[in-house]
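---------- Forwarded message ----------

FYI, see the Amidohydrolase family protein record below. Original note from H. follows.
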Amino acid sequence: MNKPFWLLLGASVLAAPSFAAQYVFKNVQVFDGRQATLSAAKNVYVQDNLISKIEDYQAINVTDPNTIVIDGQGKTLMPGLIDAHTHLMLAALPQQTLMLADQGFINIVAAKTAADMLQRGYTSVRDLGGPIFGLKMAIDKQITTGPRIWPAGAFISQTGGHGDFRLPNELITADSKKHTISVRTGTSAIADSPDEVRQHVREQLALGASQIKLMAGGGVSSFYDPLDVTQYSLAEIRAATEAAENWGTYVTVHAYTPRSINQAIDGGVKSIEHGQLIDEKTAKRMAKEGIWWSLQPFTSERKSSFAEGSPQRLKQKMVEQGTDRAYRLAKKHQVKVAWGTDILFSAEKLKGQTQLLSIMTRWYTPAEVLKMATYDNAQLLMLSGERAPYQGKLGVIEAGALADLLIVNGNPLQDLTILEATDNLQLIMKDGLIYKNTL
């Protein structure tokens, strides 16, 4: 494993994580990402950035000066959490600020967003829209801290679609698709034919996208599109999926309604984001064809970022009303479900990120939820194939897996809410480096 960038410099930009050639976590009870119970006491060995061995707990005598033994005190060792739907560049600032503020300021806020997310136990995220490539590079080079990022880059939208944030007077301006602020910053790309879609997909792949995000239906936060509209033609969607498949990866789409979801599946899409307005026939189809459903627990308890009575708030309420039925259909038909948060425009909401994990117990057991946020989400990440930015097993505690792990004070298989309090996350390791240790 390469040494951290800051160790090579001899000084750190931020506080450096702890680094050793080998760690031994003794006396821990393991949630391995799949089983519904904790193991008996174990010793877990980490060599460089991989879990190298797991053995029954026993006294150990270590003389190697490059090995650090950490007493887990019988606490829970589990995989790092994975959020399958994030927008790190767009999460913490109000929508108007993102459209008007200096990009340097936005970048710095996003770096703090990423660092805070890691401290909440999220060691990997799938980022589904925004100018993320620079932040990802800074994290990977250990210039700043944050989770592993599977980046989509700019989301692809039709004119008037969910990713079109032009002002009304820009819509009639020649070439405004190229020059509006959201396009210039790399937040969105507006494309209106199979050829334009193909070009913009290829551009994001060239920049390092691990998957492509396409807007296939109406959305809440956008200005022009009602929630029920279907966006893009079948030919345009096929242009996107063919370009992605030629690059060895896949397309996921923003869609709520049966029509938009079915057209996307017809076009070769492998994952649906949201889908709260789905019908049972479409849910059955998703299960039969192995389509991933990246569904978020949007409920009325969440404080809205939109003014009461605004068009955005009215659309948001429609989505919230569909959430319960969507989860029940997903569970009934055993659709492959990913867990994510899709938090936008609110630093306050970000602090409650893990509350959106706890709320999942309305539909699933704590063990099912934790499996979803670790092992299952890791399987979704691997849909990127060779375009996955990090190769290796994630979401599990087993020999040979990447060493992304947490030590938790308490048993989250009995009470998920303990993960909401960061004080209960007593150790955070990502890629074999310790970013927090209060044991």
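H. also flagged this: The CA atoms of residues 331 and 364 lie 8 Å apart.
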